[in-house]
Amino acid sequence: MDTERCTVVVSVNGVRYEREVEPRLLLSDFIRHELRLAGTHVGCEHGVCGACTVLFDAEPVRSCLMFAAQANGHEIMTVEGLAPAADRLHPLQEAMHAAHGLQCGYCTPGILMTLVAFLKDNPRPDEAQIRAAISGNLCRCTGYQHIVDAVMRSVA
Amino acid sequence: MKPAPFRYIVAHSIEEALAAKAEHGEEGRFLAGGQSLVPAMNFRLVQPAVLIDLNPISELAGIERADGVLRIGAMTRYRALERDAIVWRDLPLITHALPEIAHPQIRNRGTIGGNLANADPASELPAIVRALGGRLRARSAISERTIKAADFFVGALTTALAADEMLSAIELPVLPARSGTAFLEMSRRRGDFALAGVAAVVTLDAEEICRNARLAYCGLGDRPIHATAAAQSLIGERLSEAAFAEAARLAQDAVDPQGSVHASKGYQRHLAGVLTRRALRTATERARHGH
Lengths: 156, 291
Hints:
The structure holds two protein chains of two kinds. By secondary structure, chain A is of the alpha+beta class. Chain A has helices at about 25-35, 90-100, 110-120, 125-135, 145-155; strands at about 5-10, 15-20, 55, 60, 75.
Protein backbone atom coordinates (compact mmCIF):
# COMPACT_ATOMS: atom_id res chain seq x y z
CA MET A 1 0.00 0.00 0.00
CA ASP A 2 2.79 2.41 0.91
CA THR A 3 4.31 2.14 -2.52
CA GLU A 4 1.14 2.84 -4.45
CA ARG A 5 1.61 5.91 -6.62
CA CYS A 6 -0.75 7.81 -8.83
CA THR A 7 -0.10 10.15 -11.70
CA VAL A 8 -0.96 13.80 -11.39
CA VAL A 9 -1.05 16.02 -14.44
CA VAL A 10 -1.85 19.54 -13.36
CA SER A 11 -1.56 23.08 -14.63
CA VAL A 12 -0.14 25.49 -12.07
CA ASN A 13 0.11 29.17 -13.01
CA GLY A 14 -0.24 28.10 -16.64
CA VAL A 15 2.63 25.60 -16.51
CA ARG A 16 1.92 21.91 -16.98
CA TYR A 17 3.45 19.51 -14.46
CA GLU A 18 3.37 15.73 -14.34
CA ARG A 19 4.39 13.84 -11.21
CA GLU A 20 3.98 10.43 -9.59
CA VAL A 21 2.76 10.87 -6.02
CA GLU A 22 1.56 8.91 -3.02
CA PRO A 23 -2.23 9.23 -2.67
CA ARG A 24 -1.86 10.65 0.83
CA LEU A 25 0.28 13.60 -0.31
CA LEU A 26 -1.58 16.80 0.50
CA LEU A 27 -1.98 19.32 -2.31
CA SER A 28 -0.21 21.94 -0.15
CA ASP A 29 2.86 19.69 0.22
CA PHE A 30 2.73 18.79 -3.46
CA ILE A 31 2.86 22.46 -4.43
CA ARG A 32 5.70 23.25 -2.04
CA HIS A 33 7.85 20.12 -2.12
CA GLU A 34 7.22 18.57 -5.53
CA LEU A 35 6.75 21.73 -7.57
CA ARG A 36 9.06 23.86 -5.40
CA LEU A 37 6.55 26.71 -5.29
CA ALA A 38 7.08 27.78 -1.69
CA GLY A 39 4.91 30.89 -1.92
CA THR A 40 1.95 28.83 -0.72
CA HIS A 41 2.35 28.66 3.05
CA VAL A 42 1.30 25.91 5.43
CA GLY A 43 0.01 26.91 8.84
CA CYS A 44 -2.39 24.66 10.69
CA GLU A 45 -2.89 21.76 8.25
CA HIS A 46 -6.46 21.28 9.36
CA GLY A 47 -8.35 23.94 7.49
CA VAL A 48 -8.47 26.72 10.06
CA CYS A 49 -5.78 29.28 9.21
CA GLY A 50 -6.19 29.78 5.45
CA ALA A 51 -2.46 30.30 4.81
CA CYS A 52 -2.45 27.52 2.18
CA THR A 53 -5.30 28.99 0.11
CA VAL A 54 -4.83 28.56 -3.66
CA LEU A 55 -7.19 28.93 -6.59
CA PHE A 56 -8.47 25.53 -7.72
CA ASP A 57 -10.28 25.92 -11.04
CA ALA A 58 -10.42 29.66 -10.23
CA GLU A 59 -12.06 29.22 -6.79
CA PRO A 60 -10.15 29.67 -3.52
CA VAL A 61 -9.70 26.43 -1.58
CA ARG A 62 -7.57 25.23 1.31
CA SER A 63 -4.82 23.16 -0.29
CA CYS A 64 -4.17 21.31 3.00
CA LEU A 65 -7.67 19.80 2.76
CA MET A 66 -7.17 18.19 -0.64
CA PHE A 67 -4.95 15.45 -1.90
CA ALA A 68 -2.57 16.14 -4.76
CA ALA A 69 -4.14 13.20 -6.58
CA GLN A 70 -7.42 15.12 -6.69
CA ALA A 71 -5.81 17.90 -8.70
CA ASN A 72 -5.25 15.59 -11.66
CA GLY A 73 -6.62 17.35 -14.75
CA HIS A 74 -7.33 20.62 -12.92
CA GLU A 75 -5.94 24.15 -12.96
CA ILE A 76 -4.30 25.74 -9.97
CA MET A 77 -3.08 29.26 -9.39
CA THR A 78 -0.73 30.10 -6.54
CA VAL A 79 0.59 33.44 -5.32
CA GLU A 80 3.51 33.08 -7.76
CA GLY A 81 0.99 33.44 -10.58
CA LEU A 82 -0.38 36.82 -9.50
CA ALA A 83 2.24 39.30 -10.62
CA PRO A 84 2.09 40.19 -14.32
CA ALA A 85 5.89 40.38 -14.65
CA ALA A 86 9.00 39.78 -12.60
CA ASP A 87 9.37 43.48 -11.87
CA ARG A 88 5.68 44.32 -11.38
CA LEU A 89 3.16 43.41 -8.72
CA HIS A 90 -0.54 42.63 -8.99
CA PRO A 91 -2.62 45.74 -8.09
CA LEU A 92 -3.75 44.06 -4.87
CA GLN A 93 -0.15 43.28 -3.97
CA GLU A 94 0.71 46.93 -4.63
CA ALA A 95 -2.13 48.01 -2.35
CA MET A 96 -1.07 45.58 0.41
CA HIS A 97 2.43 47.05 0.18
CA ALA A 98 1.22 50.65 0.25
CA ALA A 99 -1.30 50.15 3.10
CA HIS A 100 1.01 48.01 5.28
CA GLY A 101 -1.34 45.05 4.83
CA LEU A 102 1.32 42.66 6.07
CA GLN A 103 4.03 42.46 8.66
CA CYS A 104 5.52 38.97 8.92
CA GLY A 105 3.83 37.99 5.65
CA TYR A 106 3.04 34.41 6.59
CA CYS A 107 -0.70 34.72 5.96
CA THR A 108 -0.33 37.01 2.96
CA PRO A 109 -0.33 34.47 0.10
CA GLY A 110 -3.56 32.94 1.41
CA ILE A 111 -5.13 36.36 1.94
CA LEU A 112 -4.19 37.43 -1.60
CA MET A 113 -5.57 34.31 -3.25
CA THR A 114 -8.79 34.62 -1.26
CA LEU A 115 -9.21 38.27 -2.13
CA VAL A 116 -8.42 38.17 -5.84
CA ALA A 117 -11.31 35.72 -6.30
CA PHE A 118 -13.55 37.74 -3.99
CA LEU A 119 -12.87 40.98 -5.88
CA LYS A 120 -13.70 39.32 -9.17
CA ASP A 121 -17.20 38.56 -7.81
CA ASN A 122 -17.49 41.79 -5.81
CA PRO A 123 -15.60 44.59 -7.54
CA ARG A 124 -16.99 47.30 -5.21
CA PRO A 125 -17.10 45.70 -1.76
CA ASP A 126 -17.81 47.49 1.50
CA GLU A 127 -15.80 46.93 4.64
CA ALA A 128 -18.19 44.35 6.13
CA GLN A 129 -18.05 42.28 2.95
CA ILE A 130 -14.25 42.39 2.95
CA ARG A 131 -14.11 41.24 6.56
CA ALA A 132 -16.51 38.38 5.80
CA ALA A 133 -14.40 37.41 2.77
CA ILE A 134 -11.24 37.04 4.86
CA SER A 135 -12.99 35.45 7.85
CA GLY A 136 -11.27 32.18 6.97
CA ASN A 137 -7.76 33.64 6.99
CA LEU A 138 -5.92 34.18 10.26
CA CYS A 139 -3.49 37.09 10.56
CA ARG A 140 -1.75 37.68 13.89
CA CYS A 141 0.17 40.84 12.89
CA THR A 142 -2.16 43.39 11.39
CA GLY A 143 -5.38 43.06 13.33
CA TYR A 144 -6.86 42.95 9.80
CA GLN A 145 -7.43 46.72 9.63
CA HIS A 146 -4.55 47.36 7.24
CA ILE A 147 -5.63 44.45 5.06
CA VAL A 148 -9.11 45.95 4.82
CA ASP A 149 -7.51 49.33 4.08
CA ALA A 150 -5.46 47.73 1.29
CA VAL A 151 -8.54 46.24 -0.35
CA MET A 152 -10.41 49.53 -0.12
CA ARG A 153 -7.41 51.27 -1.68
CA SER A 154 -7.19 48.72 -4.49
CA VAL A 155 -10.82 49.25 -5.51
CA ALA A 156 -10.93 53.03 -4.99
CA MET B 1 -0.21 16.27 10.63
CA LYS B 2 0.04 14.00 7.59
CA PRO B 3 -2.56 11.37 6.80
CA ALA B 4 -1.76 7.68 7.18
CA PRO B 5 -1.34 5.78 3.89
CA PHE B 6 -4.49 4.64 2.12
CA ARG B 7 -5.53 3.12 -1.16
CA TYR B 8 -7.07 5.74 -3.45
CA ILE B 9 -9.91 4.79 -5.78
CA VAL B 10 -11.23 7.35 -8.23
CA ALA B 11 -14.89 6.63 -8.91
CA HIS B 12 -16.19 7.80 -12.28
CA SER B 13 -19.77 6.66 -11.78
CA ILE B 14 -22.16 5.99 -8.90
CA GLU B 15 -22.05 2.28 -9.79
CA GLU B 16 -18.24 2.20 -9.55
CA ALA B 17 -18.34 3.98 -6.20
CA LEU B 18 -20.98 1.65 -4.80
CA ALA B 19 -19.15 -1.45 -6.01
CA ALA B 20 -16.00 -0.24 -4.24
CA LYS B 21 -17.97 0.50 -1.06
CA ALA B 22 -19.62 -2.93 -1.18
CA GLU B 23 -16.16 -4.50 -1.46
CA HIS B 24 -14.48 -2.50 1.31
CA GLY B 25 -17.38 -1.77 3.71
CA GLU B 26 -16.30 0.07 6.87
CA GLU B 27 -12.67 0.02 5.69
CA GLY B 28 -13.58 2.30 2.81
CA ARG B 29 -14.66 5.91 3.15
CA PHE B 30 -16.24 8.10 0.51
CA LEU B 31 -14.33 11.33 -0.12
CA ALA B 32 -16.80 14.12 -0.91
CA GLY B 33 -15.69 17.73 -0.26
CA GLY B 34 -13.22 16.50 2.33
CA GLN B 35 -13.61 19.54 4.56
CA SER B 36 -14.30 17.41 7.65
CA LEU B 37 -12.74 14.10 6.61
CA VAL B 38 -9.34 15.42 5.51
CA PRO B 39 -8.67 17.39 8.73
CA ALA B 40 -9.61 14.24 10.69
CA MET B 41 -7.20 12.25 8.49
CA ASN B 42 -4.46 14.87 8.94
CA PHE B 43 -4.82 14.44 12.71
CA ARG B 44 -4.97 10.65 12.16
CA LEU B 45 -8.24 10.57 14.07
CA VAL B 46 -9.51 8.69 11.03
CA GLN B 47 -7.37 6.26 9.05
CA PRO B 48 -9.43 4.70 6.28
CA ALA B 49 -7.70 1.88 4.44
CA VAL B 50 -9.43 2.89 1.22
CA LEU B 51 -10.62 6.29 0.04
CA ILE B 52 -13.25 6.35 -2.71
CA ASP B 53 -13.19 9.76 -4.37
CA LEU B 54 -16.66 10.85 -5.51
CA ASN B 55 -15.57 14.20 -6.94
CA PRO B 56 -15.37 13.11 -10.59
CA ILE B 57 -19.00 11.86 -10.58
CA SER B 58 -20.86 14.72 -12.25
CA GLU B 59 -24.27 12.98 -11.96
CA LEU B 60 -24.05 13.34 -8.17
CA ALA B 61 -24.07 17.15 -8.37
CA GLY B 62 -26.87 19.45 -9.37
CA ILE B 63 -30.18 20.97 -8.32
CA GLU B 64 -33.49 20.31 -10.04
CA ARG B 65 -37.14 20.90 -9.24
CA ALA B 66 -39.84 18.37 -10.03
CA ASP B 67 -43.34 17.86 -8.56
CA GLY B 68 -42.88 20.47 -5.84
CA VAL B 69 -39.62 18.98 -4.61
CA LEU B 70 -36.07 20.30 -4.94
CA ARG B 71 -33.75 17.43 -5.56
CA ILE B 72 -30.16 18.24 -4.66
CA GLY B 73 -27.38 15.88 -5.64
CA ALA B 74 -25.19 14.84 -2.72
CA MET B 75 -22.02 16.28 -4.30
CA THR B 76 -23.55 19.72 -4.81
CA ARG B 77 -21.15 22.16 -3.19
CA TYR B 78 -22.22 24.79 -0.65
CA ARG B 79 -21.10 27.48 -3.04
CA ALA B 80 -23.40 26.19 -5.79
CA LEU B 81 -26.34 26.14 -3.36
CA GLU B 82 -25.47 29.63 -2.13
CA ARG B 83 -25.55 31.02 -5.67
CA ASP B 84 -28.43 29.01 -7.10
CA ALA B 85 -31.44 31.02 -8.28
CA ILE B 86 -33.91 28.13 -7.85
CA VAL B 87 -32.82 27.60 -4.25
CA TRP B 88 -33.22 31.34 -3.55
CA ARG B 89 -36.69 31.35 -5.09
CA ASP B 90 -37.99 28.12 -3.57
CA LEU B 91 -36.04 27.53 -0.36
CA PRO B 92 -34.46 30.84 0.69
CA LEU B 93 -33.79 29.36 4.14
CA ILE B 94 -30.77 27.67 2.57
CA THR B 95 -29.57 30.84 0.86
CA HIS B 96 -29.94 32.82 4.08
CA ALA B 97 -28.06 30.23 6.14
CA LEU B 98 -25.14 29.39 3.87
CA PRO B 99 -23.05 32.51 4.48
CA GLU B 100 -23.07 31.51 8.17
CA ILE B 101 -21.47 28.17 7.37
CA ALA B 102 -17.67 28.11 7.64
CA HIS B 103 -15.66 30.29 5.24
CA PRO B 104 -15.59 30.92 1.47
CA GLN B 105 -12.71 28.48 0.89
CA ILE B 106 -14.58 25.72 2.75
CA ARG B 107 -17.85 26.45 0.94
CA ASN B 108 -16.07 26.11 -2.42
CA ARG B 109 -15.29 22.46 -1.61
CA GLY B 110 -17.78 21.27 0.99
CA THR B 111 -20.83 19.37 -0.24
CA ILE B 112 -24.32 19.03 1.18
CA GLY B 113 -24.16 15.24 1.07
CA GLY B 114 -20.78 15.08 2.77
CA ASN B 115 -22.02 17.43 5.45
CA LEU B 116 -25.20 15.46 6.16
CA ALA B 117 -23.46 12.07 6.10
CA ASN B 118 -20.88 13.43 8.56
CA ALA B 119 -23.76 14.30 10.93
CA ASP B 120 -21.90 16.77 13.10
CA PRO B 121 -24.45 17.85 15.72
CA ALA B 122 -23.10 21.43 15.68
CA SER B 123 -23.45 21.71 11.91
CA GLU B 124 -26.14 23.88 10.36
CA LEU B 125 -27.36 21.86 7.38
CA PRO B 126 -28.68 18.87 9.34
CA ALA B 127 -30.95 21.23 11.31
CA ILE B 128 -32.01 23.00 8.12
CA VAL B 129 -32.85 19.75 6.32
CA ARG B 130 -34.73 18.63 9.44
CA ALA B 131 -36.72 21.88 9.54
CA LEU B 132 -37.57 21.55 5.86
CA GLY B 133 -38.84 17.99 6.29
CA GLY B 134 -36.17 16.63 3.97
CA ARG B 135 -35.84 13.09 2.69
CA LEU B 136 -32.47 11.49 2.02
CA ARG B 137 -31.87 9.02 -0.78
CA ALA B 138 -29.55 6.17 0.16
CA ARG B 139 -28.12 3.87 -2.48
CA SER B 140 -26.13 0.68 -2.30
CA ALA B 141 -24.99 -1.61 -5.09
CA ILE B 142 -28.16 -3.67 -4.66
CA SER B 143 -30.81 -1.37 -3.20
CA GLU B 144 -32.15 2.15 -2.97
CA ARG B 145 -34.27 3.68 -0.22
CA THR B 146 -35.51 6.95 1.20
CA ILE B 147 -34.83 7.97 4.78
CA LYS B 148 -36.66 10.83 6.46
CA ALA B 149 -34.37 13.45 7.99
CA ALA B 150 -36.03 12.70 11.33
CA ASP B 151 -34.72 9.12 11.12
CA PHE B 152 -31.41 9.79 9.36
CA PHE B 153 -29.51 11.44 12.22
CA VAL B 154 -28.98 8.76 14.86
CA GLY B 155 -26.41 10.46 17.08
CA ALA B 156 -23.21 12.47 17.01
CA LEU B 157 -21.40 11.65 13.75
CA THR B 158 -23.76 8.70 13.28
CA THR B 159 -26.42 8.23 10.61
CA ALA B 160 -28.82 5.52 9.54
CA LEU B 161 -26.65 4.75 6.48
CA ALA B 162 -25.44 1.16 6.26
CA ALA B 163 -21.79 0.33 5.57
CA ASP B 164 -22.48 -0.31 1.89
CA GLU B 165 -24.71 2.75 1.35
CA MET B 166 -24.08 6.18 -0.11
CA LEU B 167 -26.19 9.27 0.47
CA SER B 168 -26.92 10.10 -3.17
CA ALA B 169 -29.43 12.97 -3.05
CA ILE B 170 -31.47 15.16 -0.76
CA GLU B 171 -35.13 15.89 -1.49
CA LEU B 172 -36.63 19.01 0.00
CA PRO B 173 -40.33 19.80 -0.48
CA VAL B 174 -40.91 23.36 -1.65
CA LEU B 175 -42.85 25.29 0.98
CA PRO B 176 -46.42 26.43 0.25
CA ALA B 177 -47.23 30.08 -0.45
CA ARG B 178 -47.24 32.42 2.57
CA SER B 179 -44.40 30.50 4.18
CA GLY B 180 -41.47 32.25 5.81
CA THR B 181 -38.18 30.93 7.11
CA ALA B 182 -35.21 32.12 9.10
CA PHE B 183 -31.89 30.75 10.23
CA LEU B 184 -30.04 32.29 13.16
CA GLU B 185 -27.01 31.16 15.07
CA MET B 186 -24.61 32.38 17.69
CA SER B 187 -20.97 31.48 17.24
CA ARG B 188 -17.83 32.81 18.88
CA ARG B 189 -16.33 33.97 15.59
CA ARG B 190 -17.75 34.21 12.11
CA GLY B 191 -17.65 30.80 10.46
CA ASP B 192 -17.15 28.84 13.68
CA PHE B 193 -19.50 26.06 14.64
CA ALA B 194 -22.56 27.45 16.40
CA LEU B 195 -22.94 27.46 20.17
CA ALA B 196 -26.63 27.35 19.26
CA GLY B 197 -28.54 27.73 16.02
CA VAL B 198 -32.15 27.52 14.91
CA ALA B 199 -33.94 26.98 11.60
CA ALA B 200 -37.52 28.22 11.75
CA VAL B 201 -40.33 27.63 9.24
CA VAL B 202 -43.85 29.06 9.49
CA THR B 203 -46.77 28.90 7.06
CA LEU B 204 -49.72 31.27 7.38
CA ASP B 205 -53.17 31.10 5.81
CA ALA B 206 -55.05 33.99 4.20
CA GLU B 207 -56.33 35.06 7.64
CA GLU B 208 -52.75 35.17 8.99
CA ILE B 209 -53.36 32.10 11.16
CA CYS B 210 -50.34 29.81 11.46
CA ARG B 211 -51.05 26.55 9.63
CA ASN B 212 -47.64 24.92 9.97
CA ALA B 213 -44.46 25.53 11.92
CA ARG B 214 -41.18 23.75 12.39
CA LEU B 215 -38.22 24.54 14.63
CA ALA B 216 -34.94 22.64 14.37
CA TYR B 217 -31.74 23.32 16.29
CA CYS B 218 -28.03 22.74 15.80
CA GLY B 219 -25.40 22.61 18.52
CA LEU B 220 -27.99 21.79 21.18
CA GLY B 221 -27.93 18.00 21.34
CA ASP B 222 -26.20 14.95 19.88
CA ARG B 223 -28.16 15.42 16.64
CA PRO B 224 -30.41 18.09 15.12
CA ILE B 225 -33.24 18.59 17.59
CA HIS B 226 -36.78 19.27 16.41
CA ALA B 227 -38.82 21.12 19.05
CA THR B 228 -42.14 19.51 18.20
CA ALA B 229 -44.18 20.87 21.11
CA ALA B 230 -42.85 24.38 20.52
CA ALA B 231 -43.77 24.23 16.84
CA GLN B 232 -47.21 22.74 17.62
CA SER B 233 -47.93 25.58 20.04
CA LEU B 234 -47.86 28.02 17.13
CA ILE B 235 -50.31 26.16 14.89
CA GLY B 236 -53.80 27.67 14.87
CA GLU B 237 -52.48 30.86 16.45
CA ARG B 238 -52.31 34.39 15.17
CA LEU B 239 -48.56 34.87 15.55
CA SER B 240 -47.56 37.47 18.13
CA GLU B 241 -44.74 38.17 20.55
CA ALA B 242 -46.65 36.20 23.20
CA ALA B 243 -46.86 33.18 20.88
CA PHE B 244 -43.14 33.46 20.11
CA ALA B 245 -42.30 33.64 23.82
CA GLU B 246 -44.35 30.53 24.58
CA ALA B 247 -42.70 28.64 21.72
CA ALA B 248 -39.29 29.78 22.95
CA ARG B 249 -40.06 28.49 26.44
CA LEU B 250 -41.11 25.09 25.06
CA ALA B 251 -38.06 24.97 22.80
CA GLN B 252 -35.79 25.49 25.81
CA ASP B 253 -37.31 22.34 27.30
CA ALA B 254 -36.80 20.38 24.08
CA VAL B 255 -33.12 21.07 23.50
CA ASP B 256 -30.42 19.04 25.16
CA PRO B 257 -27.27 21.17 25.25
CA GLN B 258 -24.03 19.46 26.25
CA GLY B 259 -22.19 22.55 27.50
CA SER B 260 -18.52 23.21 26.83
CA VAL B 261 -15.64 25.38 27.96
CA HIS B 262 -17.06 28.12 25.72
CA ALA B 263 -20.70 27.98 26.77
CA SER B 264 -22.43 26.43 29.76
CA LYS B 265 -25.57 24.36 29.31
CA GLY B 266 -27.55 27.18 30.89
CA TYR B 267 -26.17 29.74 28.46
CA GLN B 268 -26.89 27.48 25.49
CA ARG B 269 -30.44 27.02 26.72
CA HIS B 270 -30.77 30.78 27.09
CA LEU B 271 -29.54 31.20 23.51
CA ALA B 272 -32.12 28.66 22.32
CA GLY B 273 -34.87 30.85 23.72
CA VAL B 274 -33.54 34.15 22.38
CA LEU B 275 -32.78 32.74 18.93
CA THR B 276 -36.19 31.05 18.73
CA ARG B 277 -38.03 34.33 19.38
CA ARG B 278 -35.92 36.25 16.89
CA ALA B 279 -36.11 33.56 14.20
CA LEU B 280 -39.90 33.27 14.55
CA ARG B 281 -40.26 37.04 14.30
CA THR B 282 -38.23 37.11 11.07
CA ALA B 283 -39.87 34.01 9.60
CA THR B 284 -43.33 35.41 10.28
CA GLU B 285 -42.39 38.74 8.72
CA ARG B 286 -41.14 36.90 5.64
CA ALA B 287 -44.30 34.77 5.48
CA ARG B 288 -46.31 37.99 5.33
CA HIS B 289 -44.09 39.93 2.94
CA GLY B 290 -41.94 37.41 1.07
CA HIS B 291 -38.42 36.04 1.47
